[in-house]
Amino acid sequence: MTDKLLFDRLMATVRTKSELERLVGLYLDERLASITNGDNLADDIFRLIDWGEAKGRLADIHKMAAAAQQHANKDDFLGRMPTSELAVELEGSEEELVSRHKEWIEARKQAEYRKHDLHGRTLAGRFLVNKFIGAGGVGSVWSAYDTARRKMAAIKTLHYHISSVIMKDRFFRGARVMSNLNHANIVKILEPFGSEDDLSFFAMELIDGPNFESSVRQQLISAEDAMVGIIRVSKALHYAHSLGYVHRDVKPANILIDEATKEFKLTDFDLVKCDDSAGFTLTGGLGTWVYSAPEAKVAGRDADLRADIFSLGMTAVFVILGKEPPPLAAYDPAAFLETLPCSEAVRSVLEKSLELSADLRFSTAEEFAEALEIALSDKEAPGVNVEAKQALNRLPKNALLTLINIESQLEANDFNISESLAHMKAAFWEIGKTLVVINAYVWDAKGELTRSASTEERESDIPIDDTVQRRVRDEGEVLLTSPNTASSLFDGRILYLPIAESFGFSHGLVQIYKVTLQRFKPSEVAVAQRLCKALVNRAVASSSIQLARDRSLAAQTRDVMLASTFPTILGYDIACIQVKAGVYLGEYCEGIPLPSGESLFVIAEALRHYSSSLAELAFLRGFVTSFHRENVDLAAELAEFNNRFTKITDEDRFLVVLFMLIDPKLGKVTIANAGHGPPFLQRPNQRASPVGEEGIGLPLGIVEDMEYDLTEVMMQLGDKLILISDGVNEAMNSAGDMYGYDRLFDRLSHLEGSSQSICEGILSDINKFRAGAELYDDITIVVLQRES
């Protein structure tokens, strides 16, 4: 009897204890007869234990002891653990069964570490092993320093006692597949196959942070952020699916969170199904039980990308519950979801993703991600919302019509916060003859809460304590509180509602309190929520329209006012390329001829606020084009402009600027730098290197009376001087890697010809590296060559 047939029958057709005992006996006989390595069999036994726990048949699993006793002399069973000892374990109490096998797994991890300490060992000639991180059923994970990348990496090793060719193929299969994937939300493989002496390993980027499962269980991340992570991982899976790969083991433990970037990374493609047939084909149930689709539980080979969608849906259930879903969630998802504490919109998405029939689920992971994102953006406020929603339905028909009418007024007019609050106040009076005072507050860049509008001309502020601010701002909660003390949070006398800028983030709040200081009724809370949502919708729409107008106007004006032009300098070849990341280019670059015969080169970048940055760059251009003196002191000019700029601009605004004065006769280049990246000098047959790194001063606008240093360099025949904005260095691919200076220098060493062709060569290499990934920052490239 084949392994597939045995396991399929065990999972799908077992009805009685006697049949279970017979099938388990046959199953173990078959497996022990064909497999000499115990770790494979351990997976089988543990899968049976999981099955028994989920089915409520743990008592029946004890019958495995009888079958196990028949193989008491096979010491390879479960690694170094004799079958007779396993029989004793299985004969223990039902409550101890799972906990004992988990304890044994942990003991085996520690034994593996003690026996095979890799600390200080160098693997693949580049990975210097640093410390032990942890171990699983088949392997251990170590941190290591990657000397090639000069970054930390993670090394995953296969346990020494595993010699099965099948298990080795499975171990490397996931790494081989992941090495073909280049996505910001999939762990990057650095070395897919490593073998030294008796050690099998592969290397991947080190994700310094907790996994998704522990983060949710321990409430290290909010449910909103966790859902964002699921959406991003879903899009990463869609990318993998488009290349022919099905993960088949998506679960919270296989998602990592980078502590530094807060990015979510999918890992462990060990059970992957792919178009290439190299490696083995799994025939039994796949994945962790509760997260596996029905078709994956019975015949993993037949599971397609829709099995991953089921797993994504169950992972979302895990987030909502804060713990692993119960067996009912997998047996009867429809019945289970009826009781799940979530919005109807989210419930609808989960129902579709958890359909028992794969044909009824979302057809792609991208569809699931988009549907979940939409459902979450319409999320209901926690706490008072359910009761408030029910109360709203009980309002008289004329009151509902009044509410709808005022909502339409809020959403139809051009956004004005004071007028919007007046509409809200009128609604309370017209619907329930309730007299209220409404204040709107926003958090500024420093995190200070300030009032922006009120329905009262007189001072009407009621202090808002830090607890209320935090819960409204960070959690998006609707709170009913008292003005008296922070300890009486829910006595219902003042209503606070978040003004949400985007999902999971609030940049302001609305405070409503009754003139009589009576408690708010649930229906009044519901009215406030509806009105606040209409206010936000209008604000977002108005802001988007205004931003689009601002961006378009700034872009048109910028192309006229700040066109990049350069003088013709005898004996020099000059070229410039600029690429904007969006509609508007926030960088300025120009060469200006001076009366002395010298030329002033300027490259600058402003914060991207469209009309503001346009005005600042235009102010800079007006300043530098006024240089009509014979002798220009760059450091003094830069300091003078800094003082002027600091006086006229906001404290959170600044410019990064590089001045470069060129004397074409002498080949002398003088540089003054205010926070910009350095230029690079490349001499013939030499690698490019930065010029004047030590002389980079503070950006303009940070502080007055700043002194700037000068750096001088002499250009010889054949020298190239390259100026770039930080958009070159920081251009990223889909994996989140930056282009970097090393790649730039390597490319420059292979580029010859005119300055224009060199600019184009650099840009072409950047685009090849990005491979279609989004460009987040503008790019400016200037090349100056001395020819004669």
From TrEMBL:
PROSITE patterns: PROTEIN_KINASE_DOM (PS50011), PROTEIN_KINASE_ST (PS00108)
UniProt cross-references to Pfam families, sorted A to Z: Pkinase, SpoIIE
GO molecular function, one term: phosphatase activity
EC number: 2.7.11.1
Domain of life: Bacteria
Protein species of origin: Bremerella volcania
Segments forming domain Protein kinase: 127-376
Coiled coil residues, start to end: none
CDD domains: STKc_PknB_like
Keywords: Hydrolase, Kinase, Transferase
Enzyme kind, highest EC tier: transferase
Protein name: Serine/threonine-protein kinase PknA
Gene3D superfamilies (UniProt xref): Phosphorylase Kinase, domain 1, PPM-type phosphatase domain, Transferase(Phosphotransferase) domain 1
InterPro entries attached to this UniProt entry: Bact_Sigma-Reg (IPR052016), Kinase-like_dom_sf (IPR011009), PPM-type-like_dom_sf (IPR036457), PPM-type_phosphatase-like_dom (IPR001932), Prot_kinase_dom (IPR000719), Ser/Thr_kinase_AS (IPR008271)
